[in-house]
Amino acid sequence: MWLQVDPRSSIPIYQQVVDGVKTAIAKGILASGDRIPSIRELAVELTLNPNTVAKAYQELERHRVIEVVRGRGTYVAKAPSPPNLEERLQQIEETMQWLLVEGHHLKLAPEDLLVLFRNVINRWARNREEGHRDGPGGGDHQSDEEV
Amino acid sequence: MWLQVDPRSSIPIYQQVVDGVKTAIAKGILASGDRIPSIRELAVELTLNPNTVAKAYQELERHRVIEVVRGRGTYVAKAPSPPNLEERLQQIEETMQWLLVEGHHLKLAPEDLLVLFRNVINRWARNREEGHRDGPGGGDHQSDEEV
Amino acid sequence: MWLQVDPRSSIPIYQQVVDGVKTAIAKGILASGDRIPSIRELAVELTLNPNTVAKAYQELERHRVIEVVRGRGTYVAKAPSPPNLEERLQQIEETMQWLLVEGHHLKLAPEDLLVLFRNVINRWARNREEGHRDGPGGGDHQSDEEV
Amino acid sequence: MWLQVDPRSSIPIYQQVVDGVKTAIAKGILASGDRIPSIRELAVELTLNPNTVAKAYQELERHRVIEVVRGRGTYVAKAPSPPNLEERLQQIEETMQWLLVEGHHLKLAPEDLLVLFRNVINRWARNREEGHRDGPGGGDHQSDEEV
DNA sequence: GTGGTCTAGACCACT
DNA sequence: GTGGTCTAGACCACC
User: Which residues pair with D75 in a beta bridge?
Assistant: First the structure.
């Protein structure tokens, strides 16, 4: 399963679901137009309350990440154009500043963090490739891009 | 004041205080051995509940960022050697992965994020320099900034 | 086609059909006595479940907007005299009040809304003219009445 | 009470609460910075489930209409600058078009609707004045603005 | 005290 | 079958 949840984490479960779906899309495991499990299916799969999953799905819909077709199911959105772009860009910069602060207290200079970030990116790219290869549905989406 | 708090933020106030102190240290505004305001002083200054400030200070002490000397006050720790390094390094990497996911949904490629990160670092370096220049070197706590 | 439906909208599809038919009539694309597609035809055309179309047609019939002639087809009603006029007038006024509230939060004064409404009316009138010119079917039914 | 709810309406209760708060603000009954009832208070007052009220409050917060201060209560936002302005403006125009369609079937020409709208505005202005006069707290906010 | 999250179980509208 | 809404009752973090 491309989605896992840790009920003991301090991060709300619904937020974990939101992040998990976003991650699966970013990794290429889910592609535009793919159907994702219904609320009830996912609730059974992860042994969660359907309401919890519903809350996550609503949040994802609000962010234009998925699209709900009443009575038929839920799908990964076609053109995931984010709404409040500025706000979220600012959040990204704040997170980067947090990295600098946290790094300083771990005695990591900005250059160290830059190197670390590069490593994370490379590892990510490799995983993404795998995600493409053994993704759902067999040969539905290619994986022939260079890394 | 080198510390500000937004009561309307979704981030807990005590967490904002923790982050604020860490940031001030990382920026060079506070240095090892500097005295920081007492719980009551800070509570008055920021109009917070003393319990809230106390909780933040506890957290900072647990992370070896500050040291409380009974009856004399609280000081920035000499050698802020982090305890649970492994755990926090992992958290940093997770945060970087989150940047990749969020960036993907904002149509920012890893390279874009790398550039963005570099910008943030540069801006940070500039601010840090200023922090050094007109830092709290003179009296108890400086407050001569324009408002 | 003078009717389009968005399955991803939060507005029920049957309601979209109802509104669509009413709009076509108001625009002059459909006129009194015109034949409209059968339930099955429309369902095929829009790839909808026939039940959904049937529900829409029922609603339209209840509002005296269309008339079903058993075995012969469905037609735009002659004298679309509304049944519950009071109720619907009240609904119109409520909608106008909603416009004022929503406008206030968008910093639009009532005068601004009035201007905006005038613009919408003008645009509407222009479209309506076009609807007249290149109406459906090419001369099958005239609809050059004044309103 | 400046908020009423009809449990038998087809409009979701939480939506009624959202609209009600917005209306109260637009009418001047609630002003920037005013405290609004806590979730539990309002739930008791309207005999609703707290979760229902919470959902409404979250929606209002997302629209920047209210601000939540943890542990202290909820307040009408200072600078209610709406986020997705374009989207909401478009919704307003669509609503105005709906008025034209609905008016046509009620045999109301656009000019009639314009007149009707003017009436609604005037009535609204009068009510707003009253709302100011016998608002909460007596003379806390003035009501001497032109109408 | 406040709001935030989660579960359980129910009913409804839509397709 | 799908998602949307509501209730009831519980636990938790924060202030």
Answer: D35, D67
